[in-house]
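Try it yourself: sequence plus succinic acid, in.
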Amino acid sequence: MSYENFEARPLSGALGAEINGLDLSQPIDDATFAELRQAWLDNLVLFFRNQELTPEQHIAFTTRFGDSDPSAFIPTLPGYEDIRLQDMEDYSNLGSDINWHSDNSFTEYPQKCSALYSIQAPRKGGDTVWANMYLAYEHLSEPMQRFLDGLTAIHDLVEIMGPGILKRYGPERWQSFRDRTPPVEHPVVRTHPETGRKCLFVNPLMTWRIKELSEAESTNLLEFLNNHCVQEEFVCRFRWEKGSLAFWDNRCTIHRGIADFYTERRVMHRVAIADPVRPA
Ligand code: SIN
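Structure, out:
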């Protein structure tokens, strides 16, 4: 696909395109923005290199796509409640948390999209991978698609991460985690509200059970789906440099940061956009 106002270079056969010819620190006119939005819907993740953004410019670019959804769970950049500060030195203590996910799928209104900006990149490692959940759905057999179409997934962070919290921080922190993050239900297959395409909407970090199935059936089905979604044919991988920005659609992708860069430091700022529409 080609665009008039910038160049888009695909990153893999599945998804992702590097956009050349735009300076995100500058206001983007409406025609260019409309084309960029289309490029994002076409490619699912857009990548920009060598951007020099202040926190205000990062927020201004991202909020062209909707209202910010400040992170209630992860530390923010001092003075900027819209910017999640992701200093992966801290993450090294929570290595098991880094698994494939769609941002905040454990909430009733998962985030629509996220813009991750690299402040400090490791000399090696720390890449991020994304998977195309349209392709994951479309490559299932028709009987399997029909079966999944009627199912409901329970997303529950506490069931998955709770044991680690309990062990590390004790029962009080576990209870507060439980109170703040009740389980939520989403369809296993959702229809993207802008493209009208169907995609899978489960992920190994936050999807705990399939409501209509027995525990054994649910466990086996989720294991199959979680493996199916992230096969090489459905993914792209991005190598970060200082000043890189990735902007992705959480409704039809899952992603994972790869924790292979210790003892180097990796510092990222992330702005997420709220989705006023529940997955359906
Ligand atoms: C995330 O999981 O939202 C961020 C991924 C990354 O740090 O690469």
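One thing you can check immediately is this: The longest strand covers residues 80-87.
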